[in-house]
Amino acid sequence: MSNSDQSSGETHTGYPRKPQILARQSVARSRLFHIESLDLRFSNGEERQFERLTGADRGAVMIIAMPDPEHVLLIREYAAGFEDYVLTLPKGLVDPGEDIVTAANRELMEECGFGAHCIEPLVELSLAPNYMRHRMQVLLATDLYPKRLPGDEPEPLIVETHAIEELPALLLREDFHEARAIAALYIARDKLREEKRDSAMDLL
Question: 50 with 68, same domain?
Answer without folding.
Answer: no
